[in-house]
Task: structure prediction
Amino acid sequence: MQPLSSISFVAVARCGGLDDIFRLKSLQVELWREATRLLEPLAATTAPEARTPWESDPRGRLQRQLWRTTEIAGWNDWQGLAQAWLVRTLRQNPDGTTEAIEDRYYLTSLSPRRLTGAQILEAVRDHWGFEYFAHGSADVFFDEVDSACS
Result:
């Protein structure tokens, strides 16, 4: 089995008629820089497209908020790239104040009309559950990568 990079995974998924969502990490420097360049000003100047209800968590009461952009589509000739998402987690402190405790960035080949903001937040939450269940690893492996688009 050979691990695929995030970019090649999206290309394979698109050839197979599927779409993909993957979490962007700061080690992917150029993509990270572009996603944050587009999404951070959006989050600073506009209300989130969607937010979850407040929920109890060992870290306190949490809420997740979503911003997304299609301005990243086709970035650097990446044909499968359609949108970027910022999911911000807020914590409500005992004194009633809130603070952002985590920003996660995602890239996807999904059409912007495919999922509502609420559906995106649900998918992201399900993804987190999978990562925790799998001890922090959600890597994808394929046996027959070369045959996916032939």
